[in-house]
Amino acid sequence: MIEREEELRMKVSIIGDYGVGVSSLTQRYVDVDFYNHRHGISPDFKSKHVSADDKKVLAIFFEGKFGHRFKKVLEVFFRRADACALVFRLSSRDSFDYLKEMKKQIDDTLANLSNDCPLVLIGSGSDQWEHRAVNRFEVEDWCKKEGFCGYFEASAETGENVDEAFTELVRLGLSYHESKPVEADEVVAEEPSAKNEKTSFKCFLM
Ligand SMILES: Nc1nc2c(ncn2[C@@H]2O[C@H](COP(=O)(O)OP(=O)(O)OP(=O)(O)O)[C@@H](O)[C@H]2O)c(=O)[nH]1
Ligand SMILES: [Mg+2]
After folding, report:
1. pLDDT tens readout for residues 126-160
2. Angle between the N-to-C axes of helices 22-30 and 162-179, in degrees from 0 to 180, rounded to the nearest 10
3. In-domain check, residue 188
4. Going by fewer Cβ within 10 Å, which terminus of the chain is more open, N or C?
5. Domain membership flag for residue 204
6. The whole model's pTM is what?
C-alpha cells in the first residue's frame, strides 16, 4: 500500500475583473494537475500539488471576480485565504483603475474577516506589449503604497513569469498559513453540529 505523506492544504484566491485573464493564468500554472469545478455562482477552483520550503502542499486556487454583481460574495474568496493575487490586464487601463477602486473594499473585507494574508498583484498579458496601457513604474509605486508583497507582469499565452508569480504566492501563503494560530481553524465552524460532517476542503469555502 502506498502511504501518502501528510499534505498541507492552502487556499489561494486569484481575483480580477471580468476577462482579465484569471482562468488562463491559473490554468497555465496548474496544467497537469488541473481540475475544474463550475456550479452556479460558486467560485471556480483548480488545484496543484507543490513543494514549498520542503513541505508538501496542495494549493487550491479559487478564481474570483470583483465585478459589481459579485460584491456581496467577495468575502467567500477572502475567508480563510492564505494568500491572494489581484489581477488586472496590462492592456486595459480600466481594469487597473477598477482594481484601484476596489482595493479599499478588499482591505475592508479582509479586516472584517480578521484576515491579514499576503496580497500579490499580477499584470496579465505581458506578451501584448504593443497594447500596454498601464505604466510599470506607476503600478510599482501604487503597489508599495498599498502594501502588496509583490508585483509580477505575466503572460498566460507565453508562460512568462507565471511560475514565478504563483510560486511566490504559494511561498507567501505557506508562511502566513504557518503563522496562524491553530484556533483560527475553529472560527469557520458556523454550524457546530455540521462541523464534523464537513470535509476540510469544504471548510475552505465557508
Ligand atoms: N495574449 C494573451 N491573451 C490572454 C492572456 N491571458 C488571457 N488571455 C485571453 O484573454 C481572454 C480572457 O481570459 P480568461 O482567462 O478567460 O479571463 P478571466 O479573467 O478568467 O475571464 P472571465 O472568468 O470570463 O471573466 C481569453 O480569450 C484568453 O485567451 C495572456 O496572457 N495573453
Ligand atoms: Mg475565468
Report:
1. 999 999 999 999 999 999 999 999 999 999 999 99
2. 80
3. no
4. N
5. no
6. 0.84
